[in-house]
């Protein structure tokens, strides 16, 4: 199936309340434009340099998300352009983003990345760490950063029971924090689910899917 056919089929599967973010890392601009010309406008990148380059060369009406690990020295490549940063994985990074925004007259939206997967290589807060941080932010709000919810990745495994267990944990934590922090009406996004496991994610409460391979095919570095 072509990119257009895959995209059309996928959108028919996804409930209207779930946002589809196409992950375009390592994809050429021509490939991205195929999806764009089919009417899709929300794309995500993992690497700051690639992100910044594509933002500046592709149509201005694209809504760009950043989903990769973000180092402090790369904030300037991402924050000015990202509609939503999914991958804030430490308290230090969160405050550095807020500081950068204050100094540059910017505002941005972020998700806290929660680590539930078994792979130690994945980044993110434990649920206890995130809960503690949210309580701190309730008392001392950020100046320029809006916290919009959480993001998480399931373990890369063929064990569907484990995937569903991890997604259930994420949804439970998200729901509990959303209820506890009603003072943040923007706290309404749960970013979970990729090409391999999006069907479980949708069923278990995801509001944002991050899908690349299913639409674009296997990625190869540019």
SSE diagram, text form:
Blueprint: H1 3-13, E1 19-23, H2 29-37, E2 42-45, H3 48-57, E3 63-66, H4 75-78, E4 84-88, H5 91-104, E5 108-114, H6 127-139, E6 145-152, H7 160-180, E7 189-191, H8 198-203, E8 208-211, H9 213-216
Parallel strand pairs: 1-2, 1-8, 2-3, 3-4, 4-5, 5-6, 6-7
Describe the structure in your own words:
The structure is a single chain. This protein has helices spanning 3-13, 29-37, 48-57, 75-78, 91-104, 127-139, 160-180, 198-203, 213-216; strands at 19-23, 42-45, 63-66, 84-88, 108-114, 145-152, 189-191, 208-211. Helix 2 links the parallel strand 1 and strand 2. Strands 7-6-5-4-3-2-1-8 form an 8-stranded parallel beta sheet. With 222 residues, the chain is α/β, with parallel strands linked by helices. 35% of the residues are buried. The protein has a single domain (3-216), classed as Alpha-Beta Barrel (TIM Barrel), CATH 3.20.20. It is built from 9 helices and 8 strands.
Helix count, per DSSP? Answer: 9
- Kindly give the count of domains: 1
Structural class: alpha/beta
- CATH topology assignment: TIM Barrel
Short key terms for the protein model shown above:
TIM Barrel, 222 residues, single chain, globular, 8-stranded parallel β-sheet, alpha/beta
């Amino acid at each position: 199936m072509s990119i257009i056919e895959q995209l059309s089929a996928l959108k028919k599967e996804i409930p209207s309340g779930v946002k589809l973010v196409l992950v375009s890392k390592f994809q050429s601009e021509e490939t991205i434009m195929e999806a764009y010309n089919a009417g899709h406008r929300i794309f995500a990148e993992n690497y700051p340099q690639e992100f910044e380059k594509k933002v500046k060369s592709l149509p201005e009406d694209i809504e760009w998300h950043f989903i990769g690990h973000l180092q402090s020295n790369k904030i300037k490549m991402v924050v000015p352009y990202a509609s939503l940063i999914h991958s804030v994985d430490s308290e230090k990074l969160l405050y550095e983003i807020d500081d950068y925004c204050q100094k540059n007259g910017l505002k941005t939206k972020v998700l806290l990345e929660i680590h539930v997967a078994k792979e130690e290589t994945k980044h993110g807060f434990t649920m206890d760490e995130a809960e503690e941080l949210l309580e701190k932010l309730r008392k001392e709000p950020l100046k320029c950063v809006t916290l919009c919810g959480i993001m998480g990745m399931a373990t890369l495994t063929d064990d569907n029971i484990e995937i569903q267990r991890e997604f259930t944990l994420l949804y439970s934590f998200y729901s509990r924090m959303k209820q506890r922090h009603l003072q943040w009406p923007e706290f309404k996004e749960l970013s979970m689910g990729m090409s391999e496991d999006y069907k479980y994610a949708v069923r278990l409460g995801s509001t944002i899917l991050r899908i690349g391979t299913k639409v674009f095919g296997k990625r190869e570095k540019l």
